[in-house]
Amino acid sequence: MAASDDDALQVLSGDDQDDGAYSSDFEEEEADSGEEEADLDEEEGDFDDEDEEDEDSDEEDGAADGNVEANDSANHEEIREALLDYIGNGNAGADGDEESDDREAADESDSSEDEAPPRNTVGEIPLEFYKDEEHIGYDRAGRKLKKQARKDQLDSFLDRSDDPKDWHKVYDEYNDEYVELTKEEMGMISRIRQGKLPHAEVDAYQPYVDWFDWDGKGHPLSNAPEPKRRFIPSKWEAKKVVKLVRALRKGWIKLDKPKEKPRFYLMWGDDLKVNEKTANGLAYIPAPKAKLPGHEESYNPPVEYIPSEEEINSYQLMYEEDRPKFIPKKFDSLRHVPAYAEFIKEIFERCLDLYLCPRTRKKRLNIDPDSLLPKLPKPKDLQPYPTTCFLEYKGHTGAVSSISADPTGEWLLSGSRDGTVRVWEVQTGRCKKVWDMGGSVFCVAWNPNPALPVVAIAVSNDVVLLDPEVGDEEVQLNIAKLLAVQPSTSEPTENTPLIGWKRHDKLRGIQLSHQQNVVRVSWHNKGDYFVSVSPDDILFTFIYLFSFFSVELNASKRNNRAVLVHQLSKQQSQNPFRKHHGRVADVLFHPARPFMFVATKMHVRVYNLAKQELSKKLITGLQEISSMALHSGGDNLILGSKGAKLCWFDMDLSVKPYKTIKNHKEDINAVAFHKSYPLFASCSDDLSTHVFHGMVYSDLMQNPLIVPLKILHGHQKGVSDIKFHPTQPWLFTAGADSVIKLFCN
Amino acid sequence: MDAGERQVQVRFTTRLGSDLRVEATAFSLPVHLNRYGLSQIINTLLALDGPRPFDFLFDGELIRTTLEQLYLSKNLSAESILVLEYILAVGPPELQSSQPEKDWVSAVNGVNPSLILSGSYDSFARAWFPDGTCGSVLKGHSDAITSIAVAGSSNDTDLDVITSSKDKTLRLWKVGSFDRVSIIVPLKPSSSTLSSVRIFKGHAASVQCVAANPSNTQVCSGSWDSTIKLWKIDSEDEDNEDEQALKKRKLDGAKQSIAQVTAFTTHKEHTQCVAALEWPEDRYIFSASWDHSFRQWDVETSINTLTMTCSKALHCLSVGGEGSLLVATGGADPVLRIWDTRMPGTVVPVLQLTSHTSWISSCKWHRQSPKHLLTSSYDGTVKMWDIRSKVPLQTVEAHKDKVLCTDWWREDTVVSGGADCEFKLFKYTPIEWL
């Protein structure tokens, strides 16, 4: 297209050069143009054939005149076209880009080029490349196109004067030929020169047809001048931008990163569609896959899969369900394999399984059971604690029922069912003293006050206070004074005292006769007060059954004496409780504060002795409390029960057990706390003693730490009592086998 | 000795006399040999009249394994020549005498070579003569004797014997060493009853141990009241004492007059029972306590100069070794621990000897040898140790019940008393302890 444009311009410029020559006679010739046009058409028709021949057999370089003529006519076509193009483009400039595009498309589809292709094929190159050559280029068959011999001025002048049509011939440099302009073309050129549209038939000033229906539509566009706000930058926009910028800076707005696609994905998605839910919200659970046949099911299985005769016979002894369904068998070839007898049955069962068995998804937690266990320190790191028995205290002939250690740790007191109480030297195991109490000893207790070595012994119905004779002279004098029965001063007043403090018949000491069997004695930490427990089983059940009847009066009167508090210095006894809510199992004093712990069958009641009121009731959840021990701090209590359970109470936490441990197989007989080491222990009828680490932290935020440490064995019969050594991490255990053992670290 | 067995090169050295010396050439010996085999070889090399047992030292340790195991445990090359030093081995002791007592024997003392002292739970102390006869009975305490100390050498006419007892007192006795001359025919124990000269009062609880200083002027005692008290034997303020005592005597009237002594210093740093004391030099005292520590005290300044802590309650202590720098302690476990006092603050003992099966009731270094130790235990045995070996040299099933006390007497004899109410003497073959 561009090339043809150029040609057109060339033509026009050529015209301009000869402007002076043409302008004079242009209008004269205009009238003739109609005739000439017809001639040209004829010529055109004639030369078309020749042109085709020329293309097929164009061997001669030297072209005949006729040939040139033909070429001329072809070029003439081209120029016409170029001119048309030019004019079209000129129009296009006014019409707009879209129109020009359309025209281009139309031109491309036009076949005029195919009809008369340019003779020369050199393309769009500067023509001076061929300036010094003898040819101007190549035709389509690759043959050289020879330059025409240049006519000199004279020849050309003569030609011009000879040829009347010469004045409307134009030289085409590209194809090196002269092109004759048609009359129409001439007309177009003249119209362009006059400043008119090139085509005479185009009416540029057609009457305007207003297709729009204006009635009642108002004006679509305003004629008003542009408002000022269109020209000044918007304040609100600026504010909005500032806001956004600030938000971006401070990170309020986060520009989403483009989502990364996962590198790997399931090519065919979830095959089983396990995660898809159906319309009714139920997940599809695929049926379990049937087991694929293995080596066993092969027609020629390896030898190790084929059961021997004995094995097959042994199947007969098995239960039907346990019997293998399929017995592997060997065949020589696949042809010999018979039809599978169970086939229909198996398929049927499989189908039954599939549609009769409801499938639900089991939500199984995949948790390592070990991780649920609390992280406890290793016992090795919690040393020292008693582990081995090094010493035995032998001498009792009956079951040892109770033991108690001297607060300094030098002596050990033990009472036995054989009616004796012994004092042992801890270090050597020598029996220092034997008292024959003349009755079964239930409980012994050494006064925890080291300055006042007195022992209290519960023998059948009595509590006996004795002097173990371990103190120095001064102490001995004190004790002798204390243990001398004072003549009761308040004798005549009111009724008889609760308990008579009498001189012991045989031994040098005081005897306190109770009405019932005394099962427990325990001292207050300061060593002046002690408490005795003498419950009455029969009477208690009696009250329990007929509590609403008149019998109650008589019975409760006796039951209320289960717990008696005695004062050694004044030799007085008092009954702090009017009534008990069950059989009293054990009573303890708080080591520092005026509290008393009374354990009945199921509960432990904490009484404030100063205010004389119930301060707390501990709900144990145990079957029957058998023993009780208090931490030296006084805030932690352990209970042993007949149900072989051990309870730890943290009084600061709640009235329910902090920990309940079921460690023994049989009834727990006694529990004990160490005074200074973080140790506690429990002993039971199952012959074992369990030692625990029981760390109580002074920090109230931290709960006590309980770690089981060691199970001590060695007794032949049940272990009836345990006590820790007051200063060493040693444990004394008393057994029903009449031996006391010392376990050391 | 079959030819196929591996052989090692061994060279023997010794510090024994020239008659027991073998030539210092290397012998090629089979690796399976143990101490007995080596001893046989030495015996054949020396061609002695009677067989004499030898012990072999390698690198300061007694050989208790075969040579092969020795090579393996010491990572020795099989080509290297093993240099073994041999010494005379300690043979098993012979029971020399066994004396029944009325009660458990709780204390023995064999410091004085001319007589042995024993204390018993029947509250009497007894002086025994070398032939196993009871010389005199020291009567006066009202409770079991826990410990006996002897002040004064054998040259003195009168030995000062101090006994401690569970009756919270100590008593001083003058035991005439010449008694030996007077008693040729064994007498009944009651016939030579001695009474105490002085009584040391002040402890508030049982006195567990007593020790006299080497210059025999002072004694110290440890008690269940966790104090250590120092007493003067011949107190200068005896006159004052006497006045008071006189008054007392007048008051007491018929009661026997005994001078009372009070302690001049009390150490209270221990928190529990002081179970053992030793006064190796005049300058300082060693004490062991149930509070898991043993301490050294400077006598002049009454300062606790050294504290070492063990993990168990301590029941006995003995100072000995080279330059008296090692302390052996036994306590509420079957391990005998040996500590080096030059390394204060160490937690781990230099040596832990385990062979007993129950508590160790007493331990005693040999008075001359820095290597030999004696321990008694509640498992009924008395063991002699050589600290160059972790295995006891000799074990004697001395008593049927707990052995409560043991001591050396005259270098080669061991005395022991136990809960089976026996007082026994064991004699080792005379050996060169050094």
From TrEMBL, chain A:
The record, for Gene3D superfamilies, names: YVTN repeat-like/Quinoprotein amine dehydrogenase
- The answer on whether this UniProt entry bears the keyword Repeat reads yes
| Family recorded in the similarity comment | Belongs to the WD repeat BOP1/ERB1 family.
Location (main, coarse):
nucleus
A biological process from GO: maturation of 5.8S rRNA from tricistronic rRNA transcript (SSU-rRNA, 5.8S rRNA, LSU-rRNA)
The UniProt keywords, alphabetically, are: Nucleus, Repeat, Ribosome biogenesis, rRNA processing, WD repeat
Q: What is this protein called?
A: Ribosome biogenesis protein BOP1 homolog
Q: What sequence ranges are listed for the domain BOP1 N-terminal?
A: 130-386
Q: Show the segment(s) annotated as Disordered.
A: 1-127
Lineage summary: Eukaryota, Viridiplantae, Streptophyta, Embryophyta, Tracheophyta
Function description: Required for maturation of ribosomal RNAs and formation of the large ribosomal subunit.
GO MF entries: ribonucleoprotein complex binding
Which SMART domains does the entry mention? BOP1NT (SM01035), WD40 (SM00320)
Residue ranges annotated as compositionally biased, kind Acidic residues, are 15-63, 95-115
Q: Where does it live in the cell?
A: Nucleus, Nucleolus; Nucleus, Nucleoplasm
Compositional bias (Basic and acidic residues) spans?
74-83
Q: Among the entry's GO cellular component annotations, what is one?
A: PeBoW complex
WD repeat locations: 393-434, 712-745
UniProtKB/TrEMBL annotation, chain B:
The answer to whether UniProt assigns keyword Repeat to this entry is: yes
Presence of keyword Ribosomal protein: no
Any one GO molecular function term? ribonucleoprotein complex binding
Q: Name one GO cellular component term.
A: nucleoplasm
WD repeat positions:
138-183, 200-241, 267-307, 353-395
Q: Which SUPFAM superfamilies match?
A: WD40 repeat-like
Localisation: Nucleus, Nucleolus; Nucleus, Nucleoplasm
Query: Which part of the chain is the NLE domain?
Result: 8-69
Q: Which GO terms describe its biological process?
A: maturation of 5.8S rRNA from tricistronic rRNA transcript (SSU-rRNA, 5.8S rRNA, LSU-rRNA); maturation of LSU-rRNA from tricistronic rRNA transcript (SSU-rRNA, 5.8S rRNA, LSU-rRNA)
> What is known about what this protein does?
Required for maturation of ribosomal RNAs and formation of the large ribosomal subunit.
Record's family? Belongs to the WD repeat WDR12/YTM1 family.
Under what name is this protein listed? Ribosome biogenesis protein WDR12 homolog
What organism, scientifically named, is this protein from? Selaginella moellendorffii
